[in-house]
Please model this.
Amino acid sequence: MPAFILPLIAHPFTRKRFITLLSIEKITKDARFKLWKTAYLMFKEHFVLGVGHGNYRYFYDDYIKRFPELFVRKDLWSPHNSFLKMFAEMGIFGGLNFIFIYIMLFYLVIVVYNKTRDYKVIALSLIGFWVSYLFQNNFNNLMFIPQLNVFAWLLTALLYKAYVLEAEEEF
Model:
């Protein structure tokens, strides 16, 4: 890896590009931060109930008219952060409830990992999945991709079912 990175940094164009990637000014002007700020403003102004599930994209136009510095694209529909999206659309109660559901799924996998003997490898892989999945939702909207969610919930449910069957056999 160093043999690949060092020549890139040595070249003036790639060195300049690399340095601008680490620039605080560039980061704060980044489109993603503007989208996050727009979602935060929606949440702040509609704290209790939010703007309504799925309505971020409809309210986005109003917010970029009121705050032109947050403009990214006219047809943008997502804040690229599942947690901010939920809080903006469903308010404090819906957002906390949403997070609680995912934390309970993660907790369920940890409990199964600690109490099972036959499914430790599967549970450990699901723990890794849930950690990366929940982290990645800070930068994307994976929670709103149905195919991925069905897969995640089904794997967690199958693990839980196997754990319950194992516990019934012992009992």
About this structure: The chain has a mean pLDDT of 82. The two ends are 53 Å apart (CA to CA). The first helix runs from residue 2 to 10.
